[in-house]
Each structure stands twice: as structure tokens, then as C-alpha cells.
Amino acid sequence: MFIKDLIRTIPDYPKPGIMFRDITTLIKDPKGFNYV
Which of 13, 20, 22, 32 could hold 8 in an S-S bridge, CB 3.0 to 4.6 Å? Predict the structure, then answer.
């Protein structure tokens, strides 16, 4: 399992040029959350 695969990337949020890393998908995954 790769933690990187569980973190969602949202480009241009909240403004252009920013790569927002959303960790809620990691928190929702029990195995991934337990690993970190």
C-alpha cells in the first residue's frame, strides 16, 4: 500500500498554481490511517 495513493491531489485549489493535498481519503481508509 502506498500512502501517496490515498492522498487526493486537487490542482488549482484554492487558487491557480496551488496543488491542494486532501488527506480525508487517507483518514477514511482504516488500514492507511493506522499505518501513518
Answer: 22
